[in-house]
Amino acid sequence: MKKAKFNKLIILADEKLRNSNMYKNDDTIPEAYDGKTAALSVSVAMSDILPTLAIYYQDFDAKKPDKDCRRNVLNVVATMIDKPNEDAKFLDAEELVRYSVSGDADLQYIKKQVIDCAIALKHVVRTYKLV
């Protein structure tokens, strides 16, 4: 990835992170998100995109939506990704997963975007105080 694109992704990742439930109002992030964020791109590289999306999407407790879970990380990454052939971004992890399992999905594009966005998010998460 080119430096200029990566710099733009860092800025976007910070914006999306601040609007997520991973971010706390006192400029902190729960420490559990450091590992979950770092593991996302590695999981895609090792296991491929669909298994990783399934693992990150299923880790969610509707009774505790603020719980430190992998779906929150996937939600942030999803909102950073442009939809293929559209001028819009995915709204959340559910929309990304639904698109990815459809027969029309460009999985190579999604895989590259998830990896790039997850790396940018990892760098941003580590700039905050982890508690």
Query: How can the largest sheet be summarized?
Result: 2 strands, parallel
Helix/sheet category: mainly alpha
Query: Strand tally, please?
Result: 2
Using the coordinates above, name the CATH class: Mainly Alpha
Shape-level CATH architecture: Orthogonal Bundle
Count of DSSP helices? 6
Would you tell me the overall average pLDDT?
Answer: 93
Mass-distribution shape: globular
CATH superfamily heading: AF1862-like domain
Q: Could you tell me the strand content as a percent range? A: under 5%
User: Terminal Cα separation, in Å?
Assistant: 31 Å
Radius of gyration: 14 Å
Low-confidence spans: none
Which bin fits the share of residues in helices?
55-70%
- Strand arrangement in the largest pleated sheet: 1-2
CATH topology: Peroxidase, domain 1
Order of helices and strands: HEHHHHHE
Number of domains: 1
